[in-house]
Amino acid sequence: MCYWRRVRNIYTRCGHGVNLPEEEIKCELINCKFSRTHPQNCPNCSQTCWQYRQYPQQYSPHIDRLCPTCSASTIR
Ligand SMILES: [Zn+2]
Ligand SMILES: [Zn+2]
Ligand SMILES: [Zn+2]
């Protein structure tokens, strides 16, 4: 089923984190209300289909760089 993916880049050179906009990850399940394969007029949808998205998944990739703010302020 579908879920939101939250990415927070961690820049190890300065230790700052930057949140990226949430991304919706779509599944292809016919029994997921948010899926594109799900029928528009689904009978008994609330009984047969997922009515909510999965708990958001959080990723925090570590990037060996300065964050955009810090790298912008160190340019002379
Ligand atoms: Zn889904
Ligand atoms: Zn349905
Ligand atoms: Zn920084």
Features:
binds zinc ion; 13% helix; alpha/beta; 76 residues
| DSSP helix fraction | 10-25%
Largest sheet properties: 5 strands, mixed
Which whole number gives the mean pLDDT?
94
The overall number of domains is 1
Which percent band covers the strand fraction?
A: 25-35%
Distance between the termini: 48 Å
What is the N-to-C order of secondary-structure elements (H for helix, E for strand)? EEEHEEH
Report the uncertain regions.
Answer: none
Structural class: alpha/beta
Number of strands: 5
Overall morphology: rod-shaped
C-alpha Rg, in Å?
19 Å
Total of DSSP H or I helical runs spanning 4+ residues: 2
Model description:
It is a single chain. The chain is of the alpha/beta class and 76 residues long. It has one domain (3-73). Helices cover 13% and strands 32% of the residues. It is built from two helices and five strands; from the N terminus they run E-E-E-H-E-E-H. It has helices spanning 45-48, 68-73; strands at residues 3-11, 16-19, 23-25, 54-59, 62-63. The model has no long low-confidence stretch (mean pLDDT 94). Bound molecules: zinc ion (ZN) (3 copies). Residues 33, 38, 42, 45, 48-49 line the site of one zinc ion. One zinc ion binds at residues 33, 38, 42, 45, 48-49.
